[in-house]
Description:
By secondary structure, the protein is an alpha/beta fold.
Amino acid sequence: MSSKARVAVLGAGIMGSAVARNLLRAGLGVRVWSRTRSRAELLQRDGAQVAASPAEAAQGVDFLITLLPDASVIEEVVGKDVLASLASGGVWLQMSTVGIAGCERLRRIAAESGVAYVDAPVLGTRQPAEEGTLVVLASGPEELRERCRPIFEAIGSRTLWLGPAGMGSRLKLVTNNWIAGFLGALAETLALAEAIAVDPARFFEAIEGGPLDAPFARVKGRMMLERHFETSFSVRLALKDARLILEAAEAGGQRLKITEVVRSRYEEAIAMGHGEKDMSALFLAVAADRCRR
Length: 293
Ligand SMILES: NC(=O)c1ccc[n+]([C@@H]2O[C@H](COP(=O)([O-])OP(=O)(O)OC[C@H]3O[C@@H](n4cnc5c(N)ncnc54)[C@H](OP(=O)(O)O)[C@@H]3O)[C@@H](O)[C@H]2O)c1
């Protein structure tokens, strides 16, 4: 395999594919591994090399990027052989959303192998990922900032450096809690409109251009009203994040009742068979919950 690759991306899902493409566009050599090889092969025409195993992907690269569902999968995929394959001084940029405990577990695995670890979850979904406008919530050794800059600039419009590894994952939970509450309130607002014979278009007209308006509400609201849920971020992963938020909140001694309700709405949506649809399909669980009169 060519030694040109500087970056290995493990996981060619929605985020991993978009990140790999933007790294390639920035002129960086990229090797990709994904559990389903055909997903990695889709990146070949963009110039990516496809690896047969995670260790092969990591062979001699300066940066290892993980964009996989959760910490348990990452622990399975990133073994000692993978970390030992990196170039000397190689850095692991862990960009998946793994929560506080998950981040700490992965940081320890990196430390045991003597690999530098940057906790760098990202804010933004499919479209910002494709456009290279993610916000990177980076935390880790200060001296790695300059080295990481070309990678983060290729995939995002802003990078926040937040302190020791783990602070990025903490802020990611906070921002995702905002998203969860917002989405739940939006779904109930539109379900209420439909239930009391208000045209939802009137709701959007009423908030238009004012402080209550928000692009997120427009995008997700349209998906809810059209019952068309092309996936930017799946219900399955949104449930994973709600659980991570609640676990972290509990550890911090804070009860989050709104997030608990959103979590059960995601669970209901999954039980209805909507787990792989966009997170906005939580609306289907809300809309199906009609009380008897
Ligand atoms: N989508 C978003 O809007 C978004 C935004 C910010 C952060 N994130 C976070 O980024 C991470 C990736 O999200 P995504 O939306 O890109 O997910 P995704 O589209 O579902 O892709 C998941 C990737 O993980 C691989 N995978 C799944 N289960 C696996 C297993 N058991 N073993 C090995 N590989 C496995 C899949 O492999 P194959 O498909 O090749 O089988 C795929 O490459 C998650 O932590 C998510 O929370 C997502």
